[in-house]
TrEMBL record:
Residues 160-262 form the Pyrroline-5-carboxylate reductase dimerisation domain. PANTHER family: COME OPERON PROTEIN 4, PYRROLINE-5-CARBOXYLATE REDUCTASE. Signal peptide: none annotated. SUPFAM superfamilies: 6-phosphogluconate dehydrogenase C-terminal domain-like (SSF48179), NAD(P)-binding Rossmann-fold domains (SSF51735). This is Late competence protein ComER. Pfam families: F420_oxidored, P5CR_dimer. Residues 2-97 form the Pyrroline-5-carboxylate reductase catalytic N-terminal domain. It comes from Cytobacillus spartinae. Belongs to the pyrroline-5-carboxylate reductase family.
Length: 273
């Protein structure tokens, strides 16, 4: 099976690298392109077996499974270019949340799916969110789930929870990176610890926390209970968090959903929905 990737920006490159490093595919099974060809060639330099094509059309003509990894505003244009050369044997996958599988099916007649990856997939971890079109053949559903099992935990979701699910698995790493950086900055500001040491300690703490959860030693609530000893120092810190966090995370989800609605408006114009 030949796998095409149209767009090798941040997420497109992460997808290619994760699939290869996770041994889901061999480099020679990948056909890629990018508007700036140099970006695609950079991937080929790391994985010489990867084939680089000059256009989305060439990728589609030489692939069975095609990932469209471009910005939402560019998806419709890419689909229009490749659609005449797709057959019922192809499967087209978009990785962007504002475009539904129903919209994809209005432009192409083959199997379609949406797979929303996460930067955590680069470490062969995290979740990949999947939604399949009504015409998506069972073989493609099975193929996609098997592919992404190598780099993540594939999870099929319904359309109505796409945005919030993406907020958690795709935006979440950036949100928690920001919170951790603020945590580190506060430690440096309020104590004699230096930034480098604080960064090492915080990073290793996050890695250890992830391992505790992954291995099932604790759930989030039981982990907090174990660390937060009655009358102890951790409890005093928790009191501050409870008092000062307020509705910050509610506001985060409100902001992401507001931007999502804005993106939907733009893509709906293109897909005439």
């Amino acid at each position: 099976m030949k796998i095409g990737v149209i767009g090798t920006g941040n997420m497109g490159r992460i997808l290619v690298e994760a699939l290869i490093d996770g041994k889901a595919v061999s480099p020679s099974s990948l056909v890629i392109t990018n508007r700036t060809i140099a970006k695609a060639m950079n991937i080929k330099n790391s994985y010489p077996g990867v084939e680089v094509e000059e256009s989305p059309l060439n990728v589609a003509m030489n692939s069975d499974l095609i990932f469209v990894c471009v910005k939402p505003k560019d998806v419709y244009q890419v689909l229009q270019k490749i659609s005449p050369h797709l057959t019922s044997n192809h499967c087209v996958v978009s990785i962007t949340s504002p475009i539904s599988v129903e919209q994809l099916e209005t432009v192409v007649t083959c199997s379609v799916a949406r797979v929303i990856p996460s930067i955590t997939n680069r470490a062969l971890a995290g979740v990949s969110l999947m939604t399949f079109g009504t015409r998506c053949e069972e073989k493609w559903k099975a193929n996609l789930k098997e592919l992404f099992t190598h780099v993540s935990r594939p999870l099929e979701i319904e359309e109505e929870i796409t945005r919030v699910s993406s907020d958690i698995v795709s935006c979440g790493p950036a949100f928690y990176s920001y919170l951790t950086r603020r945590f580190i900055q506060a430690a440096v500001s309020e104590t004699k610890i230096d930034e480098e040491t604080a960064t090492i300690l915080a990073s290793e703490m996050l890695i250890g926390l992830g391992e505790l959860l992954r291995k099932g030693f604790y759930t989030l609530p039981t982990l907090q209970e174990k660390v937060c000893v009655k009358g102890g120092i951790t409890g005093e810190g928790i009191k501050v968090l409870e008092a000062e966090l307020g509705e910050i995370f509610e506001h985060v989800f409100q902001a992401t959903h507001e931007k999502f609605e804005e993106d939907l408006g733009e893509t709906n114009k293109q897909f005439k929905r």
